[in-house]
Design brief:
about 170 residues, mainly alpha, two-stranded antiparallel ribbon, about 55% helix, about 5% strand
């Protein structure tokens, strides 16, 4: 496994689940069954008058519509495949965890605290907190934060909150 594989962008858990759900909906639409999401899952055979204009299936341009759907399915599958976690061996997991620990400590050191985050302009420490907060928007901070988030998404692929760096804030 190369270092480039470990540094590639990994989509968040809920984004990957949404893409998979949309692929299923598009496949059903391609095969002529209309599927709409409900709060309990998928529901087929909903009367056309219950759907919004965007959810209605257009029968007039069936071949062009099918081509469009197939392109969309292909695009979503490609995105899902390229931004999903990959299987790591123990050596790669160790390397990733070691880098993640360094990144976590660096982020904790450079993030403003929760107390500083809620200061009012009249507070004497407000200007210091603003100058420290500006560092959170630097390119270096963003690079390390993204690397940390991707490592967390790789190590904990089924945890939607694993990549939340707000947990690191003191």
């Amino acid at each position: 496994m190369s270092a480039r594989d470990l540094e590639r962008k990994i989509a968040a858990y809920n984004v990957r689940k949404r893409w998979a759900r949309e692929i299923i909906q598009l496949q059903h639409r391609l095969h002529g069954r209309l599927v709409v999401p409900t709060h309990r899952g998928m529901k087929e055979g909903v009367p056309q008058h219950h759907l919004s204009r965007l959810e209605r299936f257009n029968d007039r341009d069936i071949t062009e519509d099918q081509r469009q759907i197939m392109r969309e399915i292909s695009r979503r599958k490609k995105a899902l495949g390229s931004q999903s976690p990959i299987h790591l061996d123990k050596k790669d997991i160790g390397r990733l965890e070691k880098q993640m620990v360094k990144d976590r400590e660096w982020l904790r050191k450079h993030m403003i605290s929760r107390r500083e985050n809620g200061l009012k302009p009249s507070h004497p420490d407000f200007n210091d907190a603003v100058s420290r907060c500006e560092k959170e928007h630097s390119d270096q901070f963003k690079t390390i934060a993204n690397r940390y988030k991707n490592a967390m998404r790789q190590l904990e692929p089924d945890d939607p909150g694993a990549a939340n760096i707000e947990k690191l804030r003191k």
